[in-house]
Write a structure and sequence with these properties.
Blueprint lengths: L3 E7 L4 H9 L4 E6 L6 H13 L3 E7 H4 L2 H5 L4 H17 L4 E5 L9 E4 L7 E6 H5 L11 H22 L2 E5 L7 E2 L2 E2 L5 H10 L6 E6 H7 L6 H10 L3 E5 L2 E2 L5 E5 L8 H10 L5 E3 L12 H23 L4
Parallel strand pairs: 1-2, 1-14, 2-3, 4-7, 7-10, 10-11, 11-14
Antiparallel strand pairs: 5-6, 6-13, 8-9, 12-13
Helix pairs in contact: 5-7, 11-12
Bound molecules: manganese (II) ion.
Manganese (II) ion binds next to helix 9.
């Protein structure tokens, strides 16, 4: 099976957006749910609506549970939040949605500016300056220790893996973005491929824990993240890659600008060929696009060109490797 191009959708997306996505030849969508939408009836209704447009929900997530400060930092309501997470797994399991997303970054993706860049031709892209991020004060009332963060992750795994196993819903863990070891007083969980190996070992052999292989994050950290080609082979062989984020940047840290695939320093065709050669069957998406222009096309509009370019590279790689 080949990789499946995917785009994100929200329940509020209009019919025209869904038709537009399908017309791009994309069949898989990642359903972004609000907390109040986490019921089986609402999820099933969304699946039914999307199916009318020829779209399949490949995965679904709720941002509030995907990046949950109480779980990550062991705040007083952590157990209630884990219960909510498990409830989500049960809802998605009943709807036969194969995976959800997690990212151990309580304060989300950190960037230092959004502006026109060297490679954006007037578009607004995201920029990151490591020195500016590392100079930020603690985001919380105190700083945290690395062991604490990993202990919190283990606590979470111990309580959700049995439910994930029972419901058949896997979890795709995204790296911390940018992949720096500690930001604003909070150590990162995943900032290189060794962290992934540690995380998988903590799942005690369960396949419930998988990864979002964010090419963008690997490229942001350069060699400090790991050997991307070898990591693709290893994690693909270990059946861990549930989703690939196909994104490029103009250079590794300390400063980078998010670019179109063809404009960055990463060899995106080489990376695509490696994914195809290793038999990766994950969903694949561009992950970030330029900021949508006011009143023009929305997120699907800004994702359309890079998604098409990605599909073109996939088509060519499959042809070249005799898989198409
Ligand atoms: Mn990503």
């Amino acid at each position: 099976m080949s990789m499946r191009p995917q785009m994100p959708v929200r329940t509020a997306d209009r019919d025209e957006t869904l038709s537009f996505i399908r017309q791009m030849g994309v069949e898989n969508v990642s359903l972004m749910l609000k907390p109040e939408e986490l019921t089986y009836d609402q999820v099933a209704a969304q699946q039914e609506r999307l199916a009318k447009f020829g779209l399949t929900v490949s995965d679904a997530a709720c941002n509030e549970l995907q990046k949950n400060k109480s779980i990550h930092l062991n705040l007083p309501d952590r157990d209630q939040q884990i219960d909510r997470f498990n409830h989500m797994l049960r809802v998605l399991g009943k709807a036969k949605i194969p995976f959800t997303s997690i990212a151990w970054q309580p304060n989300g993706i950190l960037r230092t500016s959004h502006q026109v860049g060297k490679h954006t031709r007037g578009g607004i892209s995201a920029f990151c300056d490591q020195n500016e991020i590392l100079a930020r004060p603690d985001a919380e009332e105190r700083s945290y220790g690395e062991t604490e963060i990993w202990d919190n992750f283990q606590y979470f795994l111990d309580r959700v893996i049995p439910v994930a196993e029972e419901t058949g819903v896997r979890m795709a863990l995204h790296p911390n973005d940018p992949p720096l070891a500690c930001m604003a007083g909070i150590p990162s969980l995943i900032y290189n491929s060794e962290c992934y190996r540690k995380a998988f070992a903590m799942a005690h052999g369960s396949r419930a824990l998988g990864m979002k292989l964010c090419v963008g994050c690997w490229l942001e950290a350069g060699d400090a993240f790991g050997d991307l080609m070898k990591d693709i082979e290893e994690f693909c062989g270990d059946d861990r890659i549930l989703c690939v984020h196909f994104r490029n940047v103009d250079s590794p840290l300390p400063v980078f600008e998010e670019t179109l695939a063809e404009d960055g320093y990463g060899d995106m065709y080489g990376i695509m060929k490696q994914l195809v050669a290793c038999g990766c069957d994950a969903v694949i998406s561009i992950d970030h696009g330029f900021r949508p222009m006011e009143g023009f096309g929305g997120m699907a509009g800004s994702f359309a060109y890079p998604t098409g370019f990605m599909k073109g590279l996939m088509w060519a790689a499959e042809r070249e490797l005799g898989k198409r």
